TrEMBL record:
Residues 133-309 form the Helicase ATP-binding domain. Belongs to the DEAD box helicase family. DDX18/HAS1 subfamily. CDD domains: DEADc_DDX18, SF2_C_DEAD. It comes from Australozyma saopauloensis. It is an enzyme of class 3 (hydrolase). ATP-dependent RNA helicase involved in 40S ribosomal subunit biogenesis. Required for the processing and cleavage of 35S pre-rRNA at sites A0, A1, and A2, leading to mature 18S rRNA. It holds the Pfam family CTE_SPB4. This is ATP-dependent RNA helicase. It is found in: Nucleus, Nucleolus. One of its GO terms (molecular function) is RNA binding. Its EC number is 3.6.4.13. One of its GO terms (biological process) is rRNA processing.
Amino acid sequence: MAKKSKVQKQQKAPAPLKKRSHDSGDDVSDTENLVQELDEDFDEVAQLLGENVQDPEDKKKAIKDQKKLEKLQKQSEAQDAAIRPAVVAPEVLKDADDTDNYEFEKAGFSGPTMAAIREMGFSKMTAVQAKTIPPLLAGRDVLGAAKTGSGKTLAFLLPAVELLYSLKFKPRNGTGVIVISPTRELALQIFGVARELMAHHSQTFGIVIGGANRRTEAEKLAKGVNLLIATPGRLLDHLQNTPGFVFKNLKALVIDEADRILEIGFEEEMKQIIKILPNEDRQSMLFSATQTTKVEDLARMSLRPGPLYINVVPESDVSTADGLEQGYVVCESDKRFLLLFSFLKRNAKKKIIVFLSSCNCVKYFGELLNYIDLPVLDLHGKQKQAKRTSTFFEFCNAKQGILICTDVAARGLDIPAVDWIVQFDPPDDPRDYIHRVGRTARGTSGKGKSLMFLTPSELGFLRYLKAANVPLNEYEFPTNKIANVQSQLTKLIKSNYWLHQSAKDGYRSYLQAYSSHHLKTVYQIDKLDLVKVAKSFGFDIPPKVNITIGASGKSIEKKHKKQRRA
């Protein structure tokens, strides 16, 4: 660990650290300066991502065009036959083998769409695309299940774009397709794909998400957004409170990551959204990694009777990607950071994502690693949206580097060429594990590795992973290869006031998160050695912290006192 000069007790907060460009090695300014606040500069961000929203026509022309649109809608079946002569009947695509050589050129896409596909560098469809796109082009409702990284974003965006094109949607016709996404990051990612797909189309597209300026979004909606990507809460807000939002002509609804939408508490919002949106002649598509009772209920509400169910994951298959090498390491709490530091140093030229259990843990370890000259990016839910967006795209574009994050980035996001997934704090359950490791080995020929840290008392978690068809190997790290920087770490935390406060916040939030685990038989907070846990945060003695964990709160405080006296 690099030595630092003495820091006085009344020192100022350290200046924002500069992130090192992983592509060129040059220094770049703090990522806060790369993207301004969305609520102040939504127009600039929208322009950057390629939004093309035109001014509205006068009322008389809008009424005239609306009549034309209604006429076109009545003729849509005849138009479909003319526009899509090469559509393959979905019954043909029963087995995964049938999709191996299915090419985009044979699907009968319009000229503008096909030009965009070529520019994006795609020629052959993935299994989920080959099985999903033909029935969607034919107007069927679809309930889809697929592995993460399988290409489902294109699977639902391509038919949506073709639908708007075939009906000759214009801005004054309002919104014809809505895509609902669970998180802002995933919505931005879908928006970026839509931008590329619609590069040669005249139809408009936009995005409404929490964290952006609501008034600016409302103005965009009033001008007419044909394809709208949205998060549930902000979409419901506009549906209820934005008078200029025209959605009566809605022709398709896409619900992406439906299980995740429900998991994070948007069940009531989804019920209200579906109730508000018109459902006459509306095509719907619902995608979910897992099929739960709640997902099935949402499907019944949103899809027409008799939807086509598409599952490209065989039941006998393992739960994670084929090209993923998975392992775990057993490590005492006081050695966890030392092992992580050694691992990251040794793999400095790789692209790595490290998962932690809480925002304060991400904040502390991000500040610490940057301070000791191991550059990292950090991503967590307490950051402003502009910061999260900037960090996400910076890491996506990097060839190598380290991102430390909470589970806010664990679901749905497509980050290219990730070499390692490190689960420094263990996941809550097997589903979270699968979602985390899904950030690597993506695509049809993806490769990647994952490493999970477990303490001896947490080994029971392996039984749950085995039951979920997750294959793991135990990795061993020679103790003489682990950097022994504990004394330097302790001195640094003692001398640096700001890092000391951050470490204390991280320690407290780690205990809080640990006590909130659902698998109480595996994650037992009373079995934690708090002295060893504190050492991993740079403390010789566990700091006194206040945490709220219900009835066990008192026993934790007693344990603190006992171990501080030892």
